[in-house]
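tool_call: predict_structure(chain=1)
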Amino acid sequence: MNNKTWLIAIAIAIAIISFYPENTQNSTNYNIKEDDKKTSNNDENKSLNKKNSIILEKEHNDEELTPDIIMREHLANIASTYEDNIKFPSYSKPLSINDWNLLNPRAFIPTESPLQYFPDLTASIILPKYIHNREKDLAVEVHIKSNADRQINNYIEDIGVNINRKSPSIYLTLKTNEISTAVFSGVIPTSYLKEIITDENTVFAEVNYKDGKNTIITTSVNIFNSAAELISLGSSYVDNYNLIIPAYFEIIKDGNFRIQANVFDKNSGDPVSHINEVITLSKKNNSGLLKVHAATLRAKNSSGPYLIKDINITRNPSKPGDKTGYGKFSNIQHTVNGFDLEHYSTEKYNDPVNQERLDFLRKISK
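tool_result:
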């Protein structure tokens, strides 16, 4: 292939990748800063490039690594990744203990900041989740650490926290006081949260020292009004190659909702499958079906019963200017019945459109 042909092939491959079945990992919400994302992505890309380079050297050590060979290898890697992705439907993917982002929906990722006036001290604000229901009190902790053997409480007078510097400050209580570590905790009541009308907000923590000086550290939190509530899960049943779980909601705001949850084997506690279903819900049509593909159950040889946990309800924007909404749930886990794996169809999952894309990727990588 000449350079122009290769550029076209690469562009087509990228276009195909963009049509991957919905990547469930991308729909989980985090409070990771953009710079942190770029650093993480750069590290992953460097590692992948290094790995591919080693493979190329081993496979082609007797021939020159021409741009043509390198490009074909990269396209072959894309085809292999795509093939693994399309073995399972987008609504049900295998789940492992390494899928941290799927196992921790709405995760809050703390960051440590150095404290002014005390170079050996660092502080971080800790929240239970990055996305928080306005109808619940918000627990807040401030962790202070020292690189030296310093009794931190001897230097800290108090710590006050507020949101956007508009709500009254809540003063935290010393919870843990050890050499080189101190934890202050408190609660911002829902009565304060209901006075805040914005979704994206900043939590301020003012650390006041005993010498009269102070330092302010911050973090972000998304505070939402619930658009839906998961009320219950119905009795599960088998339909062809899927385990079907009826789900019932109370809908506050109609729309298309993404329902994510993790399936665990109740007996072993092992993760089995990740559910990622998009359902149109309204006040009148307030129920939907969650599906677990049998291939993910067979991969773990799990016939149930199952625990449904780590639930995440997201309302997709319905028009320009509309914001992403979120839902709530009362029970943190639900038990559903399983069935012998022989009850499911043994037909392998196959999407003809995805298979055509895979065949094309394989063709241009040869």
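agent: The longest helix spans residues 34-59. Proceeding to next step.
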